[in-house]
Amino acid sequence: MNNILNFQTAIEQANSIVIFSHVNPDGDTLGSMIGLSKLIELNFNKKTTNVIIGKTPDTYAFLPYINECVCNQDMDKSKVYDLAIAVDVAAKDRMSDMQDIYFNAKNTANIDHHITNNNYGNINIVKGFASSGGEVVYEIAKGLNWKINSEIAELLYIAILTDTGGFRFENTSSKVFTYASELIEMGLNPTQIYRQCYESKPKAMALLNAYAIQNAVFRENDKIAYTIITKDDMKNFNAKSDYTEGISETLRQINSTEIAMLLKELPNQMTKVSLRSKKVDVSKIAEVFGGGGHHYAAGCTIQKPPKIAVEKLLELAKKSLNE
Ligand code: AMP
Ligand code: MN
Ligand code: MN
Question: What are the Cα distances from residue 302, in Å, to 28, 287, 288, 311?
């Protein structure tokens, strides 16, 4: 509670507030960031600067107020904010080139739900058991008796919905359904949101997903499933960077899969890895490479091309199957 009160005091005292979402933004970080921004506007009559690092994914272009967000490239790096807030940002390096602005701020808040979060802010509201950043923001709003309107409810609902994989993943607690129900009561339309989140994929994204599954490699009696997407694949499918979202989940849907891995080739001989599992704690594998996340969903970037990165990953994955 103390942290929550400190957070409110920090908002009250700040004349300039900036909120950061994480690189390769997803529905949770965007919904939580914009939802929190609108909560601050509604309850404290203060406008915040909301920063998207990288490109706005096509799939979330429908989010209310997304057009009011600014891109990291347009940020003045010399500006010192009174308060900088990170939402759903597991580790400071997930703020990429915005870390200096965050840490130069007079006060910093870190609102998150990743177990690997190391409390990098002055005020840390990190709930490792919460489903999503959206759930944490909603609990803050409830705890402080903040007013909420239907658009804010929609943003927080989208954050919770997408991070629980449509109320399916292991982070789907009874609390999640209680909060979802409360948010729906505020006037949002769950069917419409479902369609926007899950039935509005660009064709190239669906085709890239199919291609990635078709090319999957299976090891250890099919317990490990991985697939590699190269820069050329991305070009051939005319795919934007967020079009690979969902591929590792599709691999995990196979009954034999215990660990699913997507390796995506990045420029400069680097590889972005998405790990998913059913029982194994894959955040431990991600942490070996400086990444992190949750037990059953984690990620990291490896400073090697996919063909080399996969060997090290396979070694660690095999070991963790036997632990
Ligand atoms: P992704 O595979 O990118 O969808 O990420 C899966 C989960 O791991 C998400 O909760 C991410 O926030 C988290 N994650 C991904 N990459 C990193 C990283 N480099 N450091 C910490 N957490 C990460
Ligand atoms: Mn996220
Ligand atoms: Mn999240």
Answer: 24, 11, 10, 12
| Residue 292 Cβ < 6 Å to ligand 1 | yes
Sign of CA dihedral 87, 91, 95, 101: positive
Residue nearest to atom 21 of ligand 1 (CA): 292
- Mean pLDDT for the stretch of residues 94-98: 98
Distance in angstroms (rounded) separating the CA atoms of residues 220 and 147:
52
The atom of ligand 1 lying closest to the CA of 273 is 2
Give pLDDT, residue 2. Answer: 82
Output the residue whose Cα is nearest ligand 1's atom 4. 274
* Ligand 1 within 6 A of CB of 297: yes
Across the chain, what does the average pLDDT equal?
Answer: 97
Distance CA 26, CA 268 (A): 24
How far, in Å, CA of 67 to CA of 228, rounded? Answer: 33
The pLDDT of residue 1 is 54
User: Would you put residue 167 in left (φ > 0), alpha (ψ -120 to 50) or beta?
Assistant: left
Question: What are the helix (H) ranges across 56-189?
Answer: 99-104, 133-143, 150-163, 174-185
pTM confidence score:
0.95
User: Could you read off the pLDDT of 278-315 as tens digits, one per residue?
Assistant: 999 999 999 999 999 999 999 999 999 999 999 999 99
